[in-house]
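Subject: Sanity check before I submit

Could someone independently write out the structure tokens for this chain? I want to compare against mine line by line before I put it in a report. The sequence has 293 residues.
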Amino acid sequence: MNAIFRLTLCASATLVLATPVLGQSVQRLTFESEALGRAFPYTVYLPAGYEDGDLDYSVLYLLHGANGNEQNWVTSGKVVPTLNALIADGEIPPVVVVMPGGGNNWWADGNDEPMQTAFFDDLIPHVEDQYNVITERSGRMIAGLSAGGFGTTNFVLQYPDMFVSAAALSPAVYDPTPPSHSSAHRSVVFQTDGAFDQEVWDSLNWPSFIEGYLEQDTVVPLYINSGDHDTFDIAYHAAVLYQRLREHQPTNVEYRVVDGDHEWSVWADTIGDAVSYMTGYASWPRARDAEVN
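---
Independent answer below. Compare away.
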């Protein structure tokens, strides 16, 4: 079947790839990030009906792991057919999904590029300017795997007023120290003079932010999981995070242990469950310029 697709691009974004499937579109783009001083790549999933242009949608920011890129969730995580099926079955509302490319920066402002600053100061404003998305907390979700789960956890604990829900899949939330074969030891983000620096890790890891989160009133529902044979013992480390949050928000945190290692089969098989959980708290599509009560 032949189809004609019309793409209108703003001057601030460069189209790299557009793949129309089953009424939705997947576009790979870049925009200029002031914080990074370079192009910031991302892939965006736009649900069927988006081109009608009369609705604003909730947006999910979906982060990859260490050394990953903005296409991983599409190519390895098979997220597009998962989203299509969930939306078609009415299990989740249509959503916009933004998959940024963060390289090996662990979504942190460590001893490399300021990726956390770029995410909040550049990416979110760009998305909310260029796409038909809800620009309040009720319409923002955040999720990620491994190093992306590390970033997700830290983002939520530091900025709970930004996200209505979140999911951390096999999150690299090692406390106190990453295992020796974790890429954290080889990432410039956590190094000083070319060697892993425990103090830098501690300053960027979730225990540094948890007390501030617990002291404020906003609760971010969080879905956490891990493979039971995870080579980095994340089933244990994730359970520590889960228990700390469960004591604070017992009805707003979930933990799943599934069969598998630290691998794409775990994340591809569970992203649907995670998205279903997150969208249970998010706004459904609403008419443009609708009043928010």
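---
OP: Matches mine. For the report I'm noting this point. The radius of gyration is 18 Å.
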